Each structure stands twice: as C-alpha cells, then as structure tokens.
Predict the structure.
Amino acid sequence: MECEGLHLNIDYAGSSGIILSPEQKAALQTSLVILQNENKFNRVYLWGKILGVKDDYFIAQGAYKDEFAGRKTFYSKDCIHWGLLPPATAEMKKKSALAKGRFTGDPSYEFEHVETKKVGEGDDAVDEEETTIIKEEDRLSSVISEIDEDVRIVPRGAFVQVPTAEVVKNRSFEGLSVQEAAKLCNYMHFREAKRLDLKTLLQRANMDKAIDFMDSIEDDVPRGSWSLQFERGSGLLTLRSLQWPGYVFYHVPATQKYGSVYFGTGEKNQDLPFML
Amino acid sequence: MSEGEATPVPDAGVTGKEKEFLKAKSYLLTASTNTGINLYDHLSRVLGKILDERPDNVVDIFEDISKDSKRTKFTSDANTVQDKVDRSTEVALAQVQRKLFTKGSDDGDDDVAQDDEVETPLPNLMELCFFFEQAGIGLNREEMIRVWLALKSLVDNHPLQHVRFWGKIFGTEQNYYVAEVEYREGDEEEEEEEEPEEVQEDEAAEKEGDEEGEEEEIEEDDTPKPDFKPPPTVPKEDNRTGANKKTYFVCNDPGKPWVKLPLVQPNQITSARMIKKFLTGRLDAPVVSYPPFPGNESNYLRAQIARISAGTHISPLGFYQFDEEEEEEEEGEGRDHFVENIDFEGIPVRELADPSLGNWVHHVQHILPQGRCSWWNPVQKNEDDFEDEEEEEEREEPDEPTPEEGPALLAPLTEDEEVGNMPAWTPALSSALIPQYSIAVIHSNLWPGAHAFAFEKKFENVYIGYGQKYKSENYSPPAPPPIQEEFPSGPEITETEDPTPEEEAALRAAQQEAADAAEEMEEAEEEEDEDD
C-alpha cells in the first residue's frame, strides 16, 4: 500500500483485522518519507508486517520508475529505523524452505536444519548429519519475495507496459466497475508472466498487449484459493489469499484506490487443498 | 490506397496533388466494418478533446485518450442498464444497516429514559475498541460501531444477562461476527432444547442391543448377526455447564439478523480436532471431510468457537477467584465456578507483559480429549442397563478407562504447553516509546488471531482470524480404518457342490429302503400289540 495517505488507506484493510496503532501510523508517516528521500525512490510502499514470536517486523518496499525491476526491501522493528534486506537469491530461497516454524523476531537468529544422510555402503554406512544454517534475515528476504511472487496482485489495467518494456502506472486507470471487480480474471499477478504461453491463440488474440502482460489470478491452483468479498455492499472489495493467510488486497470499485498489504506470520498455508 | 465508397469522378481540371488529397481524405472517411466509426471523425474528435483539456505530456497518453474516445462512442446504449445494477447491493446493505442507527420508536420517550438507568448487559465496546487499537489488533472503528449497534439490537430482543463481542471469523464467501451471551437465569428459551433431545432418542433407538425392550424387529436367522456394538456416544454437556457454558449468536454482517448456534456435542469437538477446513460463511453449508463431520457448518463453527474459547480466554491473575462458600468438591473433578473478585486492584503493566506469563490465568475450562469438560465414564452406563447374557461379555472387556484430566480452571499460563519450539503466548507492551501509559497485550501462538489486553482493572479477549489452530507440521488426514475382515470361513458357510442326479437317486432309494424298513417294524409292533 502506498505510503501517501497511509493512515486513510489502512482503514480499507481494517475489516480483515489489519490495524495500525496511532503511534505506529505516526511513526511510519515520518520515517517512510525520510526513506523515500534518502534513497531517491519514486514510490515507497508499506509492504506489511511479519509477526514473530518475540517481536514483529515492519516491511517497506521502495520502487524506482520501472516497477518490475529494482525494488528494495527494508525492515524495521520500531517503524523508525529501517535496515536494508539483501535481495533473495535462488539459493537463499531453497535454504529458507527448510526452515520451519515462526520467525523469532531477532534478525540475527540462525535457524538450524539438520539432515541425516547415510554415507558409505552396506555395513559401513555411517549417519552423517548435515546442518544447514539459515539466517533469519535471509529467511525474511526469501519469504517476502516468495509472497510477492505468489500472491501480489493488481487490478487489470492499473499498470501498462510501454513499448520500451518498462512497466509504469497507468494514469488513465479509472478503476474496475462493480461487475468487473467481481470477476477474478480482472486481477493479475504483479510479476513476469509465467502462464501467458499456455493460453490458446484465440484468447491471446483478444488480449491487449499493453495491459495483459501479466497472469490473471483466475487460473491459480487450487481453485478457490482466493476469497473475494464485497464490504459495504459494493463499496469496497476485499480479496484475501488463502494460500498466504494474512495477505489482503482491497479496491474501491470505480475509483483509483487499490492496495495490498500482508499482516501475517510469514508461513505458507501448506494444507490449503485439505481446507477447501 | 483503396476506396470503400465511390467518389464522384473528379473534374479533369483538378490537379494531381488535389486528387491525391481527395483520395487520402476519402480513405480516412472509410467507415470501419466493425464499429461504424471512421478515422477522420475519430481523429478530429481526439484532437478536439486534447485542445480542450490540454493535459500534460499529452504525447505519452495519446493512445489512452484515443481508446477512451472510442469506448465512449461505442457504449452509449448500455449505460442505463449498467448504472442500475451498480448501486443496488450497496444501497440494500446500507438500508439494512440504517436500521441499526434508528432507535426503537414504538414505546415513546418514557421507556427510553428508564432504559438508560437500568444496567444494560451491553459492554462498552468503544472503550475496548480504543484499547485494541492501541495494541494494533481488532477491526476499524466504523465497523466496531456497527457491531456495537448490532449487539444492542441483540440485547433489545433477547433477555440476556451478559453480552460480549467474541470476535470475527473469516470465511471464504462471507464472514461471521460472533457474540457470546449468557441468558438471564430462568429466561432461557427452552423450545430449542427439545429438538436435539428428540434427535438423540431416535439415534439411540436405532442402535442395536443397547436399549432393552424397544426393539420390535423380528430377527431373521438367515444372516449371521454382527458382533459389533458401536461405542456409546458421549452425551453432550448440559446448557450452561462445561463446553456449553455460554451461548453464541452469529451474523454475517452487522444489521443482518443474529442466528443462535446450537449446543456443541462432544463428538463434534473430537471430529473438529481431526479436520482442518475453512469456513464458507453459510451456516447451512455441509462440511465435507474425512473423518466425516457430524453436522453442518453451524456445528463446526460452534465446535471451533468452543475450542478457541477453552484455549485462549485468559484474564489477569486475581480478577476471578473461586467462591469461598462453595466448598463441595466432587471427587476428582475440579471446581467449575468462579466469581469476580471485587477487591481486584489491577496488576502493573510491566508484570503483565513479563515473558514468564505468571500473571495470567485461563478462566474457561479446558476441553478433555473426550470432548467434554467433565469426564464421563462410558463403562458405568453399561453396568446399569444390561442384564442379558450377551452383554456380560462386554463387561469383561474394557478395564476401567482412566479418567481424562486437564489443567484445572484458573490455571496460570505458565503451564501451557509449548507450540513447536516457542512459547504458547507472546506478551508485548502497546507502546515502547511511552511505557507509562501503555497497556499489556498478549497474543496467542497456538490459535493465531486470539488476543487479549489488560490495563488497570480492565481486560478483554478477542479473536479475529480464520478459526484454525497453528501446527508447525503439515496436516495429514487420519488414515482410513483397517479393511474389515470377512466372516471366518467354516463348514457352515463353505459352499459345496450340489449332488448330482445319480447321487440324489441313490439317496432317495436309500431313504425309501429305510422308510420301508421302518414301516415293517411298526407293522410288526402293531401286530404284537393287537395280539396282546
């Protein structure tokens, strides 16, 4: 969610239990502006909050002109001092998948994952223990990038791809109408398209190259992993992800207001197929 | 360049350049076969709009303006229909919610004044909302006001002694707002209690062998009777005791009518412990799961509410105490009654937020694995009822099952088990910058979404979440039961071949001989008798 007007926008996510205390709101308003100024970002977003056992992390992201490339992620425990998180590499993501359980709240904490392997053959087999150490900072960074990759969504038409392949905000985006907002196909994953090639030629003919360069969430597996609800009659639309519980996307139909935020424990819901 | 319409043959006097110009213009005037507009009119319109509005960086958004212009030209017909549909749901909900804001105007002013003096069971929800907001949990203020008014309408329509906003549970299609109430003594509606009792009687009658004298079925002896006797169902606890101590009302949206949830039964709690399902938001939705859940979503919701209340409703140490007059303690069963401590003076916030959690206690009874709060012995029932010989075998089978025990009421949180590798609760202060005025907040790690706060003499619990327990490992459904064995084969049911006609004839002949021999014997005896 954009940091301009944060104290108003967070109200839209309030019906999903996402609330910032007045102290936190005030602190964020101050510190995010400073962050934007220091790093020369085009835009700063409050990404959300990851709840740890002892303490919570607030996460903010700053973006330059091209929204797809070059996002920087920051974390903070008190909403005032922000630390840069290292970008997540594929190796970090693999190691982080091994760490299970909640975040502790201490960025220097190290998770240990022990795997026993049998080395040697037959009677000489010896159990060797392989310990992989995962730092909490790395795990935090990987989880954030995974959440972005899996569930970060925007309404269709909010971003356009310019002929130079940059992705920029669409200034003439006027919001989805109520009927359009009720359909899952009008929301797209904010990432490089993965499933565009799987569409049939007929579908591709109807797509608009500037707008439809991302995957829609309609084809997400399993079906039903998004919960779409209208609050206030049709005045506010909330999309909650059941795959990463705590991710909330809101949109006021027929206006430009939309945003998303994650307030959760940072754990994927592995049991989703059982629960639907 | 192609021409869609025939143009008048230009005069011979028109120059070549003008000819080219006219050709170009008529090309531009060609109407599109798809939409009926032509490029000339479209461009003139777009340029006219740009010159009127003069936006910044117009060359960047030129394509968008062009698109918009096309769109507006095209969809002028359907607008009335679209506009009509847009607002209706919002208006409908707003009208429903408006009723919340109007006072009941039937009685007039006198009664209203009286109501203000009488103690109302309605809690001061706005105050609680303020505290929750300091802690960063709960719902936003406008929603809390609506919930508060909905609770007020609940209080007006039912005779209630205590009312509490229990929390909000998210569903996939709709959400539930839950209110925990206690009826006034003696005012409870008893109609709904009869229904579940009747249902239970029917179920009991269907079971074989447990009720004497009620079976009127004539048993046919052809098929072997199964030896299986289903284990007796654990009876549910009475209203106002144990897991059914409080009654719960739910609604989907403030303003919509409150629906009372049925009493919870122990088998529902044990089933709910074994499955993991999202709620849909419709009370009559079936719960499709393995093991099959006995009931629909309203029962599942009630079971989850019971589990969450039993696991996460806590209060500062000393707020509640056992009534000193009641000294009767039944053997083995803990005390289940407590009263508010009038002399409670509040615990300093720093101690409440201490990680050792010694200053908080549970004030809801723990639910035993059986599904009840007080242990029910299944064997004892058998001894009273049965006198048949068949049932004597059963008496030998189970040894006295050991009574299940759980943590006692008002046990401190220090005795709570750890979840995964972390403590079951996370305490915190609401403000790190101004600790003198901050409140103590505590979050549950076992049921994510359960929170409690305490400040001086006030405290409150709330739950906002999906209604699921936290497990660090993945959920795996229980395995199906082992395959039932066939009836042991023995000579009675082993098939043999039918006798061949020759064998039958031989048998008949042998029987005939035996019969003849018998007749001769009888005749011989009769003759002897006659002779005598």
Observations:
- Residues 501-531 of chain B form the longest helix (31 residues).
- The CA atoms of residues 266 and 371 of chain B lie 4 Å apart.
- The first strand of chain B starts at residue 160 and ends at 169.
- Chain B has a mean pLDDT of 74.
